[in-house]
Write the structure tokens for this entry.
Amino acid sequence: MKLFASLTSPYARKIRILLAEKRLPFELVVDSPWEANTRVPDINPLGKVPALVTDDGEVFFDSPVIAGYLETLDASPAMLPEDRLEAVRVRQTEALADGIIDAAVATVLEGRRPQAQRSESEVARQIDKIERSLAELERRAHNRQWLHGDAIGLGDVAVGVALGYLDLRRPELDWRARNPLLATLAERLCARESFVDTKPPVS
Ligand SMILES: N[C@@H](CCC(=O)N[C@@H](CS)C(=O)NCC(=O)O)C(=O)O
């Protein structure tokens, strides 16, 4: 299978980490949808990465859908629990983590607008979303090594990627000061080969 991804996309990083944890072979096609010669819109009408093309030519996007597809491949470790309600809870954690990334991306894009068009109140609104979601994840991390169950799962991977993205794009938020349990989780995740090998280049 082929994964279309940019090296800086946190959503794509989540999938690259899942593939690495499961030791699933794949071809990484580096393609930035922001470039004029991108092939991504031919594969994903939304023009976004990640997009996964299976060996049969079927295309899956976006990252939660790809994560769900990878669970069907019967490659261990499982990143979602068998219990369906518990799996929905893990998905909820993933949604929180992805929402943190969405909000952080929105602040980055706002900062790239011409000075006169930038809205500080919009940036503040997005940062409130990030802070509230971090507080909720910190609450969920209480008394746990992993966010769900007793092994690394999709929720941990998604949260680790979101925290890494905050470090990269909004380091001034200093989220560790208010969320010590997430800081410990991030340290544990960042030591894993899958996280080390997918660290985004500084750009
Ligand atoms: N919800 C999507 C978000 C994907 C996304 O926004 N990817 C960005 C890269 S980080 C992108 O391709 N942006 C191009 C665009 O918006 O045109 C997912 O989880 O896959």
Summary: DSSP finds nine helices and four strands in the chain. The CA atoms of residues 41 and 47 lie 4 Å apart.
